[in-house]
Design goal:
The structure is a single chain. It contains 17 helices and 26 strands. With 652 residues, the protein is of the alpha/beta class. An eight-stranded parallel barrel has the order 8-9-12-13-14-15-16-19, surrounded by six helices. A seven-stranded mixed β-sheet has the order 1-7-5-6-4-2-3, covered by helices on one side. Strands 22, 24, 25 and 26 form a four-stranded antiparallel β-sheet that branches.
Length: 652
């Protein structure tokens, strides 16, 4: 009995093993097939769209984008269809355009809505990516253009001529603010037309729609004005200088002005069309009545003195010695400006003309007999009211030409022109005041939007930029609408690229990106959706896109941040942090260059060792250095206020 049971068990075991082997073999074949499928399955890119859409729903599956796909659209969006085709062709995917579709052929359809969707407005869009095709809907070409920009961000960074997969999504998106702008200062240095176009390309990708083009200043007159040719013969050129701006040697006797240039009217008209296709409106900027040094050098009679002056090459301004403002008592100046603005509006169809209006010294007005006569005739009590008179005259010119005036918050001084739009740069007080007066306001406070400010510790970046600090997280945490005003009067915001310290387009790019990503999301996306840590993760995913496009960008979000703390006992301690989380911070006090073998910061405030004179710090991720080295003297650290150089946004 025991023997038979043993035999039975062996037979049963043998049968089980044979059956199990078959199962393993079948499973192995199946797993091989699955693995093979995974090996050839194209990688689906993550959804890291900036600015973040209003509503985004991930759907199962993906769309296979191959050279067999057709791009089609309404006649109104032909330019966008061609642009999308060219962008894909540049990376190896040549798609048919507006070809009659047949059964089985996938399409990317750009479709204008037959019925206006009030929720989307003029710049919103719907983007549906299904396994069978892609549809972008919008009320206007501008909305469809933005839908295409989001579609492009769904593509993987590395694209070749094989098929790629786009994740299926359903997006409904529209902007929070109507004015989403950047200011490009083309006056302090000379930039080629291709530089301007490249800048427009990048800002359009992130749904900016206003480019304020700064064309005149003390240092140059960059726009062709046919009625006054000396503006270009003289005002567009200065003596060449290299080095630290605002410290340049003044022009010497007999020295020729050989540096500079100006944009012809035909070039600017062509640039306007280039921008319009990308849903960017160019708002031309003229400086008046101050910052008129280049005009005064060209036409000396425009100043209060009538004397001859050179174009300032970037030397320190001598307020009170050299006039930089037009004479407010000289009637011919208004006749001159009227003719200049005639040519401005002929080149630029934008609703607004930016007239500046900032930093008017007024010292020469106070002693000028013509200005005093004007004040007496107009019953003006002081030079602030004289400036207001000047701006009112210019506003009337623009109104007669069918345009609106926008100026810096100084135009509030002495009384605001009736229909003026205020751009608030000296904090937000001017914007609040203008909004309370029921004027439209574009918020542009230097504390959050001045991209010429350093974006990391001054001891990391060489002294080529302003010493003021503006970190990416400060811009991202900015709220453009103060609590004390009616939101309807805050029409948007703008980032400023003042270029005194940016003589090349590469430096402008470096100072714009990625802070420009932060501002784009502030101005487009819902306030409630903002999350700094999540945003920074998406920012990092866009760094390879900048590299692919050969756009220079800053990696300052990885740099170490050191904050001085004061204990209750009165001693000084140091605390480290970074904008991006999950970085390792290493430091030294002995004058050596820190690396990942140096002491590691463990999250607690540390004491400064006795006798230490220099702090060094650096950041690592997964064993690789990611941030720049920080080197700062202990003496400077001890002089810093505890709130300096933190990632906390400044208060209003």
């Amino acid at each position: 009995m025991l023997i038979s049971k043993k035999i039975y068990t062996k037979k049963k075991l043998r049968s089980f093993l044979e059956f199990f082997s078959i199962i393993i073999l079948l499973c192995g074949v199946s797993c091989v097939e699955i693995n093979q499928k995974n090996e050839i399955e194209p990688e689906i890119s993550k959804v890291n769209i900036i600015p973040k859409p209003v509503l985004l729903k991930n759907e199962p599956g993906s769309f296979r984008l191959t050279s067999d796909v057709n791009i089609s659209g309404n006649p109104e969006v032909d330019d966008i269809v061609i642009m999308l085709s060219e962008q894909l062709s540049a990376v190896g995917l040549k798609l048919d355009v507006n070809k009659s579709s047949s059964d089985g052929v996938s399409e990317i359809q750009l479709v204008m809505n037959k019925t206006y969707d009030s929720k989307l407005g003029d710049e919103g869009y719907n983007l549906q990516v299904k396994s069978t095709g892609i549809i972008v809907n919008g009320n206007t070409p501008g909305g469809i253009f933005y839908g295409v920009q989001s579609l492009i961000q769904l593509l993987p960074i590395e694209i070749d001529n094989r098929e790629i997969s786009i994740p299926c999504v359903n997006i409904e998106d529209y902007p929070r603010f109507a004015w989403r702008g950047l200011l490009f200062d083309a006056a302090h240095w000379w930039y080629e037309m291709e530089d301007l176009k490249k800048f427009i390309d990048e800002m359009a990708k992130y749904k900016y729609n206003k480019l304020t083009l700064h064309l005149t200043n003390d240092q140059a007159w960059r726009i062709e004005i046919k009625a006054f040719p000396k503006l270009n013969e003289i005002g567009s050129w200065r003596v060449p200088r290299t080095g630290r701006y605002h410290s340049f040697e003044p022009p010497q006797i007999g020295e020729k002005a050989t540096y500079g240039g100006y944009y012809t009217q035909e070039e600017l008209k062509e640039l306007v069309k280039y921008a319009q296709i990308r849903n960017v409106t160019i708002i031309p900027k003229i400086e008046l009545p101050g910052h008129m040094g280049a005009l005064i050098a060209s036409y000396p009679s425009a100043s209060c003195t009538g004397l001859k002056y050179d174009v300032n090459p970037g030397s320190p301004r001598k307020y009170g010695e050299i006039p930089y403002e037009m004479c407010a008592g000289n009637e011919s100046n208004f006749e001159m400006l009227d003719k200049i603005l005639d040519e401005y509006v002929e080149m630029f169809p934008s609703e607004y003309i930016h007239i500046g209006g900032d930093e008017v010294n007024k010292s020469f007005w106070k002693t000028c007999s013509k200005c005093h006569k004007r004040m007496a005739e107009e019953n003006l009590e002081n030079t602030d009211e004289l400036q207001s008179y000047f701006i009112h005259r210019v506003e009337k010119m623009l109104t007669d030409k069918g345009r609106k005036l926008v100026g810096w918050d100084e135009i509030l001084e002495g009384g605001l022109a009736p229909s003026a739009t205020v751009m608030s740069w000296r904090g937000v007080k001017g914007g609040i005041k203008a909004a309370q007066m029921k004027h439209d306001v574009v918020m542009a406070p230097n504390t959050f939007t001045y991209f010429d400010y350093k974006q990391t510790d001054p001891n990391i970046i060489p002294e080529t930029y302003s010493r003021s600090l503006l970190r990416l997280s400060q811009t991202y945490n900015w709220e453009p609408v103060p609590e004390s005003v009616d939101p309807q009067y805050i029409i948007g915001g703008q980032g400023q690229l003042w270029t005194e310290y940016m003589p090349h387009i590469r430096e402008i790019e470096y100072m714009t990106w990625p802070r420009g990503l932060a501002l784009s999301e502030v101005l487009w996306s819902p306030k409630i959706e903002r999350n700094t840590d999540e945003f920074l993760e998406r920012v990092e995913e866009h760094f390879p896109r900048f590299e692919k496009a050969q756009v220079k960008y800053a990696k300052s979000i990885y740099d170490p941040i050191v904050t001085r703390l004061k204990t209750e006992e009165g001693s000084v301690q140091l605390q480290f942090s970074t904008e991006v989380k999950d970085l390792d911070i290493y430091y030294t006090f002995d004058g050596t260059i820190p690396d990942n073998f140096s002491p590691k910061y463990e999250g607690q405030a540390i004491d400064i060792p006795k006798g230490a004179t220099l702090l060094g710090a650096v950041t690592f991720r997964n064993g690789d250095r990611v941030g720049k080295w920080l080197s700062i003297s202990i003496k400077e650290l001890q002089s810093r206020l505890p709130v300096d150089y933190t990632i906390s946004p400044p208060k209003y």
